């Protein structure tokens, strides 16, 4: 699991007394593997794993190099990750940016990848007719790449990686946690003692020869795995693999790293005064076991048991009893050489971290005394089983699972092993893991507090060493990746690799069969049956959201959504949450401007019981005063935490500029003051008058028939009644009379977050799909887009930039957004503006051909997962679109021409009438932005 994926539990414990719907018996171990595979090893040592999955006409390919930051050396950290970036850029036979262009042409998901401590993974999902092209391209990367790397290319990509570091670590609240923790947990010569991103100093010191040596040592077939999952012919696929990869020479032998655990001889306490954090946070970390260890599943279930509400003892102590926070995170970070596990709490405003640690320790002491019941262990197992099915619900998820398993364990059956180990864990195993790794064991305690609140820091803590980057105008030289480019020396091959393979037969892309009915209470019910995995997902969408809030009581709709999952009339929150977990189910409520959506996933065998619980939640809410207090505290803490996020601040400034005094100028959650003032009567009144079943939509996808779904929701149709409601209003807004720049000051920010906004079409408008298609080349096509190619690949200003049309039922907006290096704020904003301004004029015939081809072919990937199928049903229902909307959009795409794109650009991309927001360091950047030509920036006061 990723260290960043900290699971959180937001529930409160209470005595169990009422009866919950009984889950069915756990399903037996699968008669066949969850992911059937065939493994071959080529003569050069390349390991190849194939999985046939004919559920959709798509194929996922993962090329895995068994090299992560743990293969680096002191003084040359960050190389594995830097190399991942370089690997996408060029190769001898694809040409510069060839993989991105190829992916766009064939309708692929876009080349992607990631580096962790142990390996680097390159991922791609494509329609099945493009498989041979992808194998040709990946082989070109592995064996025919290094001659294309020049000093100028390395220099530019170093700037991109540095921007990623600023965005993920330096300009984020709590962003320095992992650098601090890894350095403290491991000795300096341990390869886990530094982060994957590396240090700025090491990146700046990188040379072309360093890169070449890294490639020759690690990027060899005998240190790589190729994983293929999808609608494939195994014999033909093997022949292609042999052709394209077989003649790449084997490298020097590579040893598998041996385990080397993190060691703490005594508890360490560290603190950091965080310039970006708005709330105090503490993380406790214990050394545990590496991935694949026999005890792995027990350790994971242990930290679930400690932290997950409503009855986790640490959760209960922190959230319910001491009320120092609204959540507790627990996660296990198990890697190839070592593992650690952690608890994390972000405290409420003004809470000293010593109080938080005391609450955590009280929960740990309770667990040691009271232990774990078999019933609770089975609930935790059911949740993890459902999570596993969710993870392998797409061919992309399958190849990632297979890639990690084959690389780390040298066997591809990780899903089956995980499921078997999960089911075998006993209460005694969990308690043994607690005694061995947590109880009275040394640990690392890392506390972050807002820079102006040092009194909240952990007592007797050492100050962590954090390297801060200074903002210096002109510190980086302009980069030109074409500088010094000469004729590329081609590596000999037995055939002409410059010839791109032909596409296979065009895949048949059927739209999923949809069934529809209307329940007796006026709620529509639609569904798609899919039996690939034993799970079901469903949503209940109601036309009530922020637009129905009383302007004097912003946040009411949101708080109603928060309260719905906090128990029912006959069940406390603990009973309700435990009943859900026993079914392997999860439920959440999301509240937006126009609607509220109850989202549910469950094991298929427990679908009827899950629907019964959701029915009870919706028709018999508990309205508990203590739960309201917790929901308020959680919402206010969330608002305070969001105000440390540059992207959020930019969006809020744009809202205020667009909507001014409207209810939509607020966060959907309201303000801290408005949330604190809301009462139970306010919430009851809102739900009684706005949560109407008339026109509400239920959509279901998964291993369930139409008849079973109708039977399951029959009770809800009887109990949930009410009249139709008048429309709530509109999210549409008018373009400003002229472009204005707004600046929100974050002193010392290492990056500036830039957001450009103007009105766009509603989702159901005739222009919406045409606008989405027109935006593909501008900023919607990933690495193939013009904004990315110029701002990231051309200039190295940013790690990522995108433009998008966001269509809602009553209006829409067009936006361009990017976090950029602070000292090029003006230059980046100018370039973004100019690209958008000139887009219609510069759109070419080849751009049109690429747009049509990519979007048409990408349809093969659109309905693969249950989430995508539910999304299709939601799109049709929420925006009143025709059932054959895919056919309609395909026809619009076929008819797209340059004139239409130019009309879209004139209508929706007018840079003379837009809002531009910059969140960054005003002292160094605000004055410079006058050169944009829109006058002095409007300085925005701090959010209240």
From TrEMBL:
The UniProt record lists the keyword Transmembrane helix: no
InterPro entries from the UniProt entry: Metalloenz_LuxS/M16 (IPR011249), Pept_M16_N (IPR011765), Peptidase_M16 (IPR050626), Peptidase_M16_C (IPR007863)
UniProt domain Peptidase M16 C-terminal: residue ranges: 206-382, 678-852
Keywords: Hydrolase, Metalloprotease, Protease, Signal, Zinc
Domain Peptidase M16 N-terminal: 47-161, 534-655
Residues of the signal peptide: 1-20
Stated family: Belongs to the peptidase M16 family.
PANTHER family: NARDILYSIN (PTHR43690), NON-CATALYTIC MEMBER OF PEPTIDASE SUBFAMILY M16B-RELATED (PTHR43690:SF35)
Protein name according to UniProt: Pitrilysin family protein
Organism the protein comes from: Sphingomonas rustica
